[in-house]
Amino acid sequence: MVEMVAQLDPTGIFDIPNTRLIFWEVVAFLILLFLLIRYVFPPIRKQIQDRQRAIEESIDEAERTRREAHELLAEYRRQIDEARGEARQILDESRKQGEAQRERAKKEAREEADKIIERARNEIGREREAALRGVRQEVADMVVVASERVLKRSIERDDHDRLISDALDSLESDVATSGVGDGRGGR
């Protein structure tokens, strides 16, 4: 019979001594498989799930942060537009005040010109300078307040001086082009 099995099975797999070895190898493999499934794979699966959850939370957090950044950007743009509107309003108001002061100065100059022309010119010059200083200070304060609102922080001294200088230069060029205090007394 052994010869018949040997003829049917030239590899010797079904040989009785080899069969026992295969049996124990299968048993050892099944035990190893059981131990892996029972004790090794659950912690690995848990780590994979934890890592996946952490990645999903990171993605969600990044999305939230992106949305918040867009909202902040929109808010900052709105504040900038609002500050520009306030700056325009301040400039318009200062122009109107300059116009009103110029008209008053012209009227006073006409009244005084008949009496004491030279005294009237000197008076207009002094009033013009005082008005410009007052307007300069007011415009400078308004520009600083508007800038602080835009920037939401205190302005450094150099920036403060630069902003005031820019605003005053702009105001002086507006006043110079409109002809305030040209020394003619409105004639």
UniProtKB/TrEMBL annotation:
Location relative to the cell: Cell membrane
Gene3D superfamilies found in the cross-reference section: F1F0 ATP synthase subunit B, membrane domain (1.20.5.620)
Spans traversing the lipid bilayer: 21-41
Coiled coil (UniProt feature): none
Assembly description: F-type ATPases have 2 components, F(1) - the catalytic core - and F(0) - the membrane proton channel. F(1) has five subunits: alpha(3), beta(3), gamma(1), delta(1), epsilon(1). F(0) has three main subunits: a(1), b(2) and c(10-14). The alpha and beta chains form an alternating ring which encloses part of the gamma chain. F(1) is attached to F(0) by a central stalk formed by the gamma and epsilon chains, while a peripheral stalk is formed by the delta and b chains.
Keyword annotations: ATP synthesis, Cell membrane, CF(0), Hydrogen ion transport, Ion transport, Membrane, Transmembrane, Transmembrane helix, Transport
Residue ranges of the region described as Disordered: 91-111
This protein's name: ATP synthase subunit b
UniProt-listed InterPro entries: ATP_synth_B-like_membr_sf, ATP_synth_b/b'su_bac/chlpt, ATP_synth_F0_bsu_bac, ATP_synthase_B_chain
Family the UniProt entry places it in: Belongs to the ATPase B chain family.
Pfam families for the chain: ATP-synt_B (PF00430)
Matching NCBIfam families: ATP_synt_b (TIGR01144)
Main location: membrane
Membrane topology: Single-pass membrane protein
GO molecular function list: proton-transporting ATP synthase activity, rotational mechanism; proton-transporting ATPase activity, rotational mechanism
Record's function text: Component of the F(0) channel, it forms part of the peripheral stalk, linking F(1) to F(0).
Species assigned in the record: Rubrobacter marinus
GO CC terms, sorted: plasma membrane; proton-transporting ATP synthase complex
